[in-house]
Amino acid sequence: MSLTYTAGSLVAARGREWVVLPESAADMLVLRPLGGSEDDIAAVFPAFEEVRPAEFAAPSPSDVGDQRSAGLLRTALRIGFRSGAGPFRSLASIAVEPRAYQLVPLLMALRQRTVRLLISDDVGIGKTIEAGLIAKELLAQGEATRLTVLCSPSLAEQWQSELREKFGIEAELVLASTVSRLERGLDLGQSLFDKHPYTIISTDFIKSTRHREDFVRHCPDLVIVDEAHSCVTADDAGQGAASGTNQLRHELLRKVSADADRHLLLLTATPHSGKESAFRNLLGLVRPELASLDLESPAARARLAEHFVARKRADVREYLTKEDGLADDSLVQRTAFPSDRWTKDEPYKLTPEYRALLDDAIAYARDRVAAAGEQGRREARIAWWSVIALLRSMVSSPAAAAQTLKTRSESATARTAQEADALGSPVAADSADNDRLEGMDVAPGAAESEEAGARLLELSERAAELVGPAGDAKLKALTRHLKGLIADGYSPIVFCRYIPTAEYLATQLEGKLGRRTKIAAVTGTLSPQQRLERIEQLAAESAGDAGAGGAAPDPAARRVLIATDCLSEGVNLQHHFDAVVHYDLAWNPTRHDQREGRVDRYGQKRDQVRVITMFGEDNGIDGKVLEVLFMKHRQIMKDLGISVSVPDETASGVTDAVVEWLLLHGRQGSQESLFDLDGHQESLDRIEREWNSAAEREKTSRSKYAQRAIHPEEVAREVAAVRAALGGAEEVRDFAVEALRDLDALVRDPADGTGDFTAQAGGAPAGLRDALAATLGGRLVEEDRQIPFRTTPAIGRGEAALVRTDPAIGAIASYVLDSALDANTPGPRPARRCGVVTTDAVTVRTTLLLVRYRFHLTLPSRTGERQLVAEDARLLAYEGMPSRARWLDDDATAALLAARATGNTHEQLVRNQIARDLGALPDLAGHLTEYGTRLASELDASHRRVRKANEEIVRGLKVVPQEPADVLGVYVYLPQQPAAASASTVSGAEA
Predict the structure, then answer these.
(1) Does residue 828 have a pLDDT over 90?
(2) Residue 308: closest CA among 706, 714, 644
(3) CA 921, 927, 930, 932 torsion-angle sign
(4) CA distance 399 to 465
(5) Residues 691, 693, 696, CA angle at the centre, nearest 5°?
(6) How many helices and strands (H and E) does the chain possess?
(7) Ranges 2-11, 411-420, 461-470: which has the least confidence
(8) DSSP letter string, 532-547
């Protein structure tokens, strides 16, 4: 007759102990290893395998550790938890430690029956992590079963990597390049979106009619939309290509959001960029009623605040402080954003040969525009875009100029003037819409027929002759600036407008910046995945064989990346680069913000990012664009403290005026201020008024829609609870250093104030080496290289973050815990389950217990109740003998971990003291049970507090402790006695 086991009970099977999970049945047990993760769950059939009740064995008095055993064992245990009992089911199983401010959207989400959020935090704050936290939590709680991320195809691989590496979510890419392969693996009648529960989908691919309807029919119950502002249009939007694309995306999202039970997260750093109707349409996707709210009303803004979070860096640089309304700064969290950008505008002057070439090109352009104007509207617009392409390429580089002059204009095939604008504008102008960057770095054409005219071919040949620093003063100036940055220890990115320019620079700079500087170019000729691979390859090459054989990385090694704007949005480059050079001045300052945002973001190790903007002092274009657009942009940022996106029509109005003036007056008029020129003052005044108005609206919206749904006190309470259950950063660092040293790794701790250290694992036990190799790379461990351990969660390849969720830290903790529980483990064992310490930290005999509790959780949700088994580890301590125990509070108990031996302890006394407490454990069972009941009540209150706004979700919630609790460790602290210890003793460092 087989026994029936309740959820949460312990059983022994397959040579180890397991926890019975609620999914079990009489004939099949679903088991999780004691202290193991969800990945280790197994099914056991009692009819075919031996399964017996198990009790957690008490510690052995013969296996005694030193004074640090309790702390090491507790931390190892807590790091190993992957099924915590608190209200956040996922935090114990992710590989990133979220910042406190990143918990705000999660708290907002957990208070909604169906999650609908617009997350509009500033660039670089971590919207991807905030969305990932919500997704992982909803999946862990069973509130969602399938997930889709809609994003630009250029960001798909990065989303896939983030979900996999940080949240353990394996998502399939659904792109134009992958869909055929995926569809071949489908069963008859099966949808792609049913087969793959987690997908990352190109928004432009899925918006087409053929795929859209299938996606909408089988759409997952959780959808994340990246760059959501590009998926709506203003009510007065025109009929251009970009507007049409946005309308198709908007139509797709309207269908997706129409299901009121679908979770929807919209992410954008620019929700309100001046078009009120576009902002309203975005809100309508969150909740239809939000689109028509009177946002001047405090009640309406409070309603919106339940679904909308928008914060700048200044709001979160220091969080949970007294200024946030807390009683003190004990929980303050400082986030290491770069404190400031060092910016400088660097002019250059053309060589005489290049000046002559540009003058001739301007003369040609003037003649061409004049002639086309007499032929009709269509011909005039074709000529206009051809001229802009010619002039922009000319001031970019000789290589781009030569290519443009012999390439047919994109607009030359247009049948109407409107079509000419639609074809010419994307490749000649700089849109603020970062979703329109892909494929826009090709050199545009200037010729208006298949065969370039003799005049253009002659200009092309002259441009080709100017390659190199002798004829190209701009290249010569760049070389000087890069050498300065490299000498100061920076690794810069050089941003160019066109592919030929990027390739030209990479060739010309090779060998000119020092032998220890590696250079690579990344352009739109590479696929998004190839771009990331090229960057990682450059990072590896610039480090060379640094670290081989334990050698430190070469501090003189530098890297320079030459890139087009295919990398100016979405790709995180802050781990490898810390300076930006704008080689080609963009015609919209927003594009510069996007470029700089790739390195000036969370995770940047530099406190100051450097930015150099190069501009042609005498080319007739750059100076005026800088004067009118960039100076105004910077002044608004200085006055208001925020960056205001420049509308495309505003930037185009300015640059059109610049080009018109250049054609009329040539370069000689370039010293005059554009605002002083007759004929342009009225239009420029109008542009300035519109821009100022947009800036004021942005400033007002930032204060009007400030995040007020979650008070910092609420966040502080949950952060404190999470730290109590899972530990904090300092505890993890101390544990890693001590454990690695005890395990015979070579630890180098420079004590330089950063908290970083390195370790070589060559001398560590084979089991630990294998585990580290699996997470950090086999070569790093096999060649006994230095492994950097960083205090920041933002790390590079081959590094470990000093956070409990880092896989390398988990491997160390697992080894320490397993070796403590198995006295037969060969080699060093840092932690033991027993200890006796003589110390001046106590005045009476004190005993510390490390206790593991298991809880049976009933979690209601909109899909029904879920039964879960969770674990928690706590320290309990009492003074005196077990039969008359005086229990200490939590603070006094935790303080015992810092106690150090101040005297020796007699061997016989050690055995007697441990045996006495182990024998009295049954007498303590009543208090341990009472404590478990109280802890369950606190956990119940925490679950209800987090979900307090949704009575439906908390109705039926239960947290019940599973008895008996497991006593993992018993540690006795004896007061220092004045009498001298006898000769036969055990030192405090071993007792």
Answers:
(1) yes
(2) 706
(3) negative
(4) 9
(5) 110
(6) 34, 32
(7) 411-420
(8) HHHHHHHHHHHHTTTT
Question: 628-637, long-range: CB within 8 Å, 24+ apart, which pairs?
Answer: 628/654, 628/658, 628/674, 628/675, 628/684, 629/587, 629/588, 629/589, 629/654, 629/655, 630/585, 630/589, 630/592, 632/688, 632/691, 633/589, 634/589, 636/691, 636/692, 636/695
Q: What does 235-265 look like in DSSP terms, one character per residue?
A: TT--SSHHHHHHHHHHHHHHHHHTSTTSEEE
Residue 40's pLDDT band (cuts 50, 70, 90): confident
The pLDDT of 651-655, averaged and rounded, is 71
**Would you state the structure tokens that stand for residue 20, as one six-digit string?**
């019975």
SS3 345: strand
Task: Using a pLDDT cut of 90, give the percent of the chain over it.
Answer: 30
Side-chain-side CA neighbours of residue 961 (13 Å)? 21
What is the per-residue pLDDT across 366-405, written as a single tens digit (0 to 9) for each? 888 887 777 777 777 777 778 888 888 999 999 999 998 8
Q: DSSP H helical segments within 142-275, as ranges?
A: 156-167, 179-184, 192-195, 203-206, 209-217, 241-257
Residues 6+ apart with CB under 8 A from 980: none
Provide the 10 A C-beta neighbour count for residue 862. Answer: 12
The answer to whether 943 and 979 have CB atoms below 8 angstroms apart is: no
- Other CB atoms within 10 Å distance of the CB of residue 132: 26
Q: By the 8 A CB rule, do 729 and 803 touch?
A: yes
How far apart are alpha carbons 310 and 315 in whole angstroms?
10
What phi-psi label fits residue 452: left (phi over 0), alpha (psi between -120 and 50 degrees) or beta?
beta
Contact assessment for residue 93 and residue 726, using Cβ atoms and an 8 Å cutoff: no
425, 382 in Cβ contact below 8 A? no
Average pLDDT of the chain, as a whole number: 82
- Say which residues have a Cβ less than 8 Å from residue 189's Cβ, sequence separation at least 6: none
| Structure token digits, residue 453 | 């005219």
pLDDT at 548: 40
Extended beta strands in 712-784, E state: 746-748, 757-760
**Spatial distance between the Cα atoms of 825 and 89, rounded to a whole number of angstroms:** 32
Q: How far is CA 190 from CA 145, 697, 939, in A?
A: 18, 48, 43
Compute the radius of gyration of the chain from its Cα atoms. 33
Task: Give the angle subtended at the CA of 41 by the CAs of 804 and 776, to the nearest 5°.
Answer: 40
User: Which is nearest to 430 in space by CA: 224, 645, 704?
Assistant: 645
* Residue 211 to residue 255: CA distance in whole angstroms: 13
765 backbone φψ class: left, alpha, beta (φ>0; ψ -120 to 50):
beta
pLDDT in tens, 556-615: 678 999 999 888 666 778 888 999 999 999 888 888 888 988 898 877 888 889 999 999
Q: How far apart are CA 856 and CA 374, in angstroms?
A: 83
Structure-block tokens of residue 725: 């259950």
Instruction: Report yes or no on whether pTM surpasses 0.85.
Output: no
At how many degrees (to 10) do helices 807-821 and 69-80 cross?
120
Which residue in this structure is represented by tokens 């039926």?
956
Residue 527's alpha-carbon distances to 156, 176, 203, 523, in angstroms, are 11, 12, 17, 9
* Residue 82, pLDDT score: 63
- What DSSP state is assigned to residue 637? H
Which of 141-145, 361-365, 564-568, 884-888 has maximum average pLDDT? 884-888
Q: How confident is the model at residue 547 (pLDDT cuts 50, 70, 90)?
A: very low
Contacts of residue 128, Cβ cutoff 8 Å, sequence gap at least 6:
159, 162, 226, 267
How would you label 342-365 residue by residue, b for 16+ Cβ within 10 Å and e otherwise? eeebeebebbeebeebbeebbebb
The one-letter code for the residue type at 494 is V
